[in-house]
Specification:
397 residues; alpha/beta; binds cobalamin; single chain
């Protein structure tokens, strides 16, 4: 027990004098990674000691609370799901357990403070270079501990409660970002994380920018009839989106409406039902299951899929996996999806030249993929265009 205390105390003290807040680091980006590298060895050794002690003594939780009490005083935060989290005054080493959280940390200018992230954290490119702790669903606790974070970020939207409970027992502070159900809630979570990480100003500027871009998109799409979309989350089994998810909201903001109307968040839907609904456009996110293009090629000959008019006419949009990640880059994915769904609303504007990887591709099913297929302008709104199911039923008859 004393060793646990000593390992953590030694580590906290050894880096205390070198800790800089997030927004200071923005102005002094060099040297921090070197600092982290210097400490990684110490951190790793201390982590091993800690793990050894966990395996020797199941009552570690109580012991680490005692250790916490003796550590230099920090701040107490309430995370998005109401848990009280004790963190140092200035957060120096963060481990992120989800790609969206990693993207938020970088967007807030705190990438240098990221001590580790998951195998799926690939944006920005630096995120992929960080030590990985496994997948969001099944992270390796030993690797998290070995990185000696002073804050672990988790989200209800892909991490498991068991992971958070286990980290709590070990005594590592975990800030849980809630599961956003709308694009606005994604922006709010950026603001909350900004406060947790001491990057309030960056978060406020970023949030203003995102809200302004979304307002501009609303203005452009005003009056455009929503496209009837099947958003494909997964194909085996077929999983789509429910109406209260951030993706359904993203779709609405891009001028689309999901043909699947249900309270369930990630509903399993039968192909018979999809054929009956006959969506106008199929939207896939890249890189959820692996190679999206290969998957679509495989789908086009399958029963059900080959009976979809959208497949036959090549009304398929592949949008970046940023759409699957409630993080700031999602707004760019929404903008690009809007261009694909409503090219007529963007006739006078070029696609942004800076590519953050949140792009899309659109192709004709029967034609060569190199020849982009353009959707016909959306039909004018009908009296019941808000009622997707009724409209779809009418189409299916
Ligand atoms: C639906 C789905 C999604 C949805 C929703 C995620 C989710 N909540 O599960 C969306 C589209 C958002 C998504 C996104 C991504 N996904 Co996905 N997804 C799936 C899929 C197809 C089904 C999972 C499912 O049924 N979820 C519904 C249920 C289980 O989740 P839920 O209702 O939200 O309930 C959970 C939470 O509420 C949580 N919870 C409840 N209470 C509490 C309390 C606390 C404190 C906490 C922390 C959690 C918590 O626990 C519940 C159970 O896990 C699986 C593949 C499969 N067939 O299983 C892949 C899968 C989970 N996804 C995966 C990946 C890689 C991703 C992405 C990284 C893809 C990408 N390239 O961007 C992103 C990450 C998003 C992010 N946050 O950054 C991997 C994860 C691999 C791993 N080892 O971790 C899987 C397994 C697919 C695969 N084989 O590669 N995904």
């Amino acid at each position: 027990m004393r060793l646990v205390f000593l390992a953590r105390f030694f580590y906290f003290c050894s880096r205390k004098s070198k800790t800089m807040p997030f927004e200071t680091i923005l102005r002094a980006p060099n040297g921090v990674d070197a600092e982290i590298r210097k400490h990684r060895h110490t951190a790793f050794s201390a982590g091993i000691v800690l793990l050894f002690l966990i395996s020797c003594d199941g009552s570690i939780a109580g012991q680490t609370s005692a250790a916490h009490a003796a550590l230099p005083r920090g701040r107490e935060l309430t995370d998005d799901i109401g848990r009280r989290v004790q963190i140092p005054q200035e957060v120096d080493r963060v481990v992120s357990l989800a790609p969206n959280l990693t993207e938020i940390v970088f967007a807030l200018g705190g990438g240098n403070h990221l001590a580790g992230d998951t195998d799926f954290c690939d944006y920005p490119a630096e995120a992929a270079q960080k030590p990985h702790v496994g997948g969001p669903v099944n992270p390796n606790l030993e690797e998290i501990v070995a990185l000696m974070p002073d804050l672990v970020l988790a989200t209800k939207s892909i991490n498991r409660r068991e992971t958070v409970n286990a980290l709590d027992h070990i005594g590592l502070p975990v800030y849980v970002v809630t599961d956003p159900h709308s694009v606005e809630e994604m922006i709010t979570s950026v603001e909350h994380l900004g406060s947790a990480l001491g990057a309030e100003k960056s978060a406020a500027t970023l949030a203003d920018d995102l809200r302004e871009r979304l307002a501009e998109l609303d203005r452009r799409l005003a009056g455009a009839a929503p496209r009837r979309v099947l958003f494909v989350v997964w194909t085996e089994p077929m999983i789509s989106i429910g109406r209260d998810t951030f993706i359904a909201d993203a779709l609405r903001r891009a001028g689309g409406r999901s043909v699947v109307e249900t309270k369930a968040e990630w509903p399993h839907v039968s192909m018979e039902e999809i054929v009956r609904l006959q969506p106008e456009v199929l939207v896939f996110a890249s890189a959820h299951a692996g190679d999206t293009q290969r998957d679509i090629d495989a789908l086009r000959t399958r029963p059900g899929w080959r009976n979809l008019d959208a497949m036959k006419h090549g009304n398929i949009v592949v949008v970046s996996d940023a759409i699957n990640r409630p993080a700031p880059r999602m707004v760019e994915a929404i903008e690009r999806l809007a261009r694909a769904l409503h090219p007529e609303a963007f006739a006078s504007r070029a696609v942004p030249s800076v590519d953050s990887g949140a792009g899309f591709s659109l192709w004709g099913f029967e034609s060569a993929r190199s020849k982009p297929h353009r959707l016909k302008p959306a039909p004018p709104p009908t009296a019941d265009s808000n009622s997707i199911i009724e409209e779809a039923c009418a189409c299916a008859r």
